[in-house]
Amino acid sequence: MASGEALTTSGYIVHHLTNLTVGHGFWTFHLDSLIVSGLLGLFAFIGMARLASKAAIKEPGKMQTFVEMLVSFIDQQVKDTYHGKSALITPLAVTIFVWVFLMNAMDLIPVDFIPLILGMGGVHYFKAVPTTDPNLTFGMSLTVFAMMLIMGVKVKGVGGFLHEVFTVPFGAKLAPLNLLFRVIEDVAKPISLALRLFGNMYAGEMVFILIALLGLWQLPLALPWALFHILIITLQAFVFMMLTIVYMSMASESHG
Amino acid sequence: MNINATLIGEAIWFGVFIWITMKYVWPPLAKAMADRQKLIADGLAAGERGKHELELAGKRSADALRDAKAKAAEIIAAAEKRGAQMVEEAKLVAKVEADKVVASGRAEIAQQVEQARAELRGRVADLAVAGAERILKREVDARAHAEMLVALKQEL
């Protein structure tokens, strides 16, 4: 709490849950989410790209071994689930897992640490965990949704795709009902994807904030919650990745 | 929870990162891993082949060893036989030679004996003549001489 506001409980919580913004109305940008997610992504993916460009066949270094282990684990998940031909799925899954994991991991930085430092520089609001921002989770899930539709059309053709939309699962006679089912099914996908990640991370962050309000008691409580949170961080990144693979696989296989 | 243009920004970030991963991270890593798998598979196959070859070479060397032993035994037997034969031959030759030497020795001895005998005969004759001369110069005792000469003759 470096901003000098009244030190009330709700004030503290609200302060921690307010984004650093520019712009008005719809054209508001959450600078904190954009900067943190962008920096983490650039750091991770440019680092991985540099590593991959120097990938040694005979004597891989420790970092290369680690990245290869991760990537081949994800590739195995993709191979087990997705049976299409697209070469996009594994890179997509790797991107999701690594990026979401890193953004979630920002949750492990003590809640007052970054606001305190930035507060000294005159920045009063800063949410350091981008995955607690629904804009990010929906940005990702809608991108996945778009790729899912494109994949469906690409694999089945426009005719095949429309045929599936109108005839599955009840046959051509109940075309409107089929369309309704399909719309509900498909719309539920990005929403559940985005809200699951957002909800988990937001709730986790909230618990950290509440623990931070306990004064001395936060010391024995923050550590176990952080340890437990490591599990949630990894699990949520994995779930987002896995569901994306499943959705892509469903989009490239014909229903029923 | 307010949705705004941040969503677009995050979607752009997401797209950029997918693009980086798809273009610069995944292909080289996948290639390196596939190449390494191939390298390992090749290495294992080569190892297996080497083991097989070693086994064959072991068999071959055992065969060669056995052949060599048999051949060596054969050669030794032949050499022993030849050695015995040579000893026999040498013995034979030596015996012949020895016989020859002995025969020639004997012949020589006989010859020398004969020579010595002839020489002695001559000398005795001379002695007899000399003795006769001396006796003749003194007196001739026919009887005594006759006895002496008879004795001489018998001695010869």
From TrEMBL, chain A:
<dbReference type="InterPro" id="IPR000568">
    <property type="entry name" value="ATP_synth_F0_asu"/>
</dbReference>
<keyword id="KW-0813">Transport</keyword>
<keyword id="KW-0472">Membrane</keyword>
<keyword id="KW-1133">Transmembrane helix</keyword>
<feature type="transmembrane region" description="Helical">
    <location>
        <begin position="138"/>
        <end position="155"/>
    </location>
</feature>
<protein>
    <recommendedName>
        <fullName>ATP synthase subunit a</fullName>
    </recommendedName>
</protein>
<dbReference type="InterPro" id="IPR023011">
    <property type="entry name" value="ATP_synth_F0_asu_AS"/>
</dbReference>
<keyword id="KW-0138">CF(0)</keyword>
<comment type="function">
    <text>Key component of the proton channel; it plays a direct role in the translocation of protons across the membrane.</text>
</comment>
<keyword id="KW-0066">ATP synthesis</keyword>
<keyword id="KW-0812">Transmembrane</keyword>
<comment type="similarity">
    <text>Belongs to the ATPase A chain family.</text>
</comment>
<dbReference type="InterPro" id="IPR035908">
    <property type="entry name" value="F0_ATP_A_sf"/>
</dbReference>
<feature type="transmembrane region" description="Helical">
    <location>
        <begin position="86"/>
        <end position="102"/>
    </location>
</feature>
<keyword id="KW-1003">Cell membrane</keyword>
<feature type="transmembrane region" description="Helical">
    <location>
        <begin position="34"/>
        <end position="53"/>
    </location>
</feature>
<dbReference type="InterPro" id="IPR045082">
    <property type="entry name" value="ATP_syn_F0_a_bact/chloroplast"/>
</dbReference>
<feature type="transmembrane region" description="Helical">
    <location>
        <begin position="225"/>
        <end position="248"/>
    </location>
</feature>
<keyword id="KW-0406">Ion transport</keyword>
<feature type="transmembrane region" description="Helical">
    <location>
        <begin position="193"/>
        <end position="219"/>
    </location>
</feature>
<keyword id="KW-0375">Hydrogen ion transport</keyword>
<dbReference type="Pfam" id="PF00119">
    <property type="entry name" value="ATP-synt_A"/>
</dbReference>
TrEMBL record, chain B:
<dbReference type="InterPro" id="IPR028987">
    <property type="entry name" value="ATP_synth_B-like_membr_sf"/>
</dbReference>
<keyword id="KW-0066">ATP synthesis</keyword>
<dbReference type="Pfam" id="PF00430">
    <property type="entry name" value="ATP-synt_B"/>
</dbReference>
<comment type="subunit">
    <text>F-type ATPases have 2 components, F(1) - the catalytic core - and F(0) - the membrane proton channel. F(1) has five subunits: alpha(3), beta(3), gamma(1), delta(1), epsilon(1). F(0) has three main subunits: a(1), b(2) and c(10-14). The alpha and beta chains form an alternating ring which encloses part of the gamma chain. F(1) is attached to F(0) by a central stalk formed by the gamma and epsilon chains, while a peripheral stalk is formed by the delta and b chains.</text>
</comment>
<comment type="function">
    <text>F(1)F(0) ATP synthase produces ATP from ADP in the presence of a proton or sodium gradient. F-type ATPases consist of two structural domains, F(1) containing the extramembraneous catalytic core and F(0) containing the membrane proton channel, linked together by a central stalk and a peripheral stalk. During catalysis, ATP synthesis in the catalytic domain of F(1) is coupled via a rotary mechanism of the central stalk subunits to proton translocation.</text>
</comment>
<protein>
    <recommendedName>
        <fullName>ATP synthase subunit b</fullName>
    </recommendedName>
</protein>
<keyword id="KW-0406">Ion transport</keyword>
<keyword id="KW-0812">Transmembrane</keyword>
<comment type="function">
    <text>Component of the F(0) channel, it forms part of the peripheral stalk, linking F(1) to F(0). The b'-subunit is a diverged and duplicated form of b found in plants and photosynthetic bacteria.</text>
</comment>
<keyword id="KW-0813">Transport</keyword>
<keyword id="KW-0138">CF(0)</keyword>
<dbReference type="InterPro" id="IPR050059">
    <property type="entry name" value="ATP_synthase_B_chain"/>
</dbReference>
<comment type="similarity">
    <text>Belongs to the ATPase B chain family.</text>
</comment>
<comment type="subunit">
    <text>F-type ATPases have 2 components, F(1) - the catalytic core - and F(0) - the membrane proton channel. F(1) has five subunits: alpha(3), beta(3), gamma(1), delta(1), epsilon(1). F(0) has four main subunits: a(1), b(2) and c(10-14). The alpha and beta chains form an alternating ring which encloses part of the gamma chain. F(1) is attached to F(0) by a central stalk formed by the gamma and epsilon chains, while a peripheral stalk is formed by the delta and b chains.</text>
</comment>
<feature type="transmembrane region" description="Helical">
    <location>
        <begin position="6"/>
        <end position="26"/>
    </location>
</feature>
<keyword id="KW-0472">Membrane</keyword>
<dbReference type="InterPro" id="IPR002146">
    <property type="entry name" value="ATP_synth_b/b'su_bac/chlpt"/>
</dbReference>
<keyword id="KW-1133">Transmembrane helix</keyword>
<keyword id="KW-0375">Hydrogen ion transport</keyword>
<dbReference type="InterPro" id="IPR005864">
    <property type="entry name" value="ATP_synth_F0_bsu_bac"/>
</dbReference>
<keyword id="KW-1003">Cell membrane</keyword>
